[in-house]
């Protein structure tokens, strides 16, 4: 394993309850430090102090702040996938209409990105990704598209045979737009509620339009 890979991977995995609690405290503290101070100023000393552990204890689990950031990104990937599956289950039970279902989805993604927008931008744009995390991110995107495709089959107004690549476009569009809005809220010239409504209207139109025959004028 190269030195670079060693710096991006956890030093050891927590097994005991106390060890897991220590790692959780470090990750929570790191998220708060990165959000408040940014990545460059988010030093391991600051993280350890915020977590209430010694710097030596931090280094028992993470060899660098890069490794901590990677762990936070893995946590974000897992949480986003979990939230998507929860949303699908809720939509199936509640039997919401297409517009309402999509509104709930966009609102939930906005909520995820708005909680710690500076951290979200850092995780997705600034940190170097080990290959395993890059592959995990790609796999999560594919799984999200499959999950979305399965749900949309329940809505008769959606054009027939919606393929997974259509749902991939939907997932990527919502991810990109909500991320951009949450990270730069002061740059936006429309209210948040209007922004969500506009995305939903766009998605409904995209999913329900009837494509013209290729030879149509």
TrEMBL record:
Keyword DNA-binding appears in the UniProt entry: yes
- The HTH tetR-type domain extends over 20-80
The protein's UniProt keywords, in alphabetical order, are: DNA-binding
Q: Give the matching PROSITE patterns.
A: HTH_TETR_1, HTH_TETR_2
What Pfam families does its record include?
A: TetR_C_15 (PF17918), TetR_N (PF00440)
- For whether the record's keyword set contains DNA-binding, the answer is yes
Q: Which residue numbers delimit the DNA-binding region?
A: 43-62
Checking PANTHER family in the record gives: HTH-TYPE TRANSCRIPTIONAL REGULATOR RUTR (PTHR30055), HTH-TYPE TRANSCRIPTIONAL REGULATOR UIDR (PTHR30055:SF223)
State the protein's name.
AcrR family transcriptional regulator
What is the source species?
Desulfomicrobium macestii
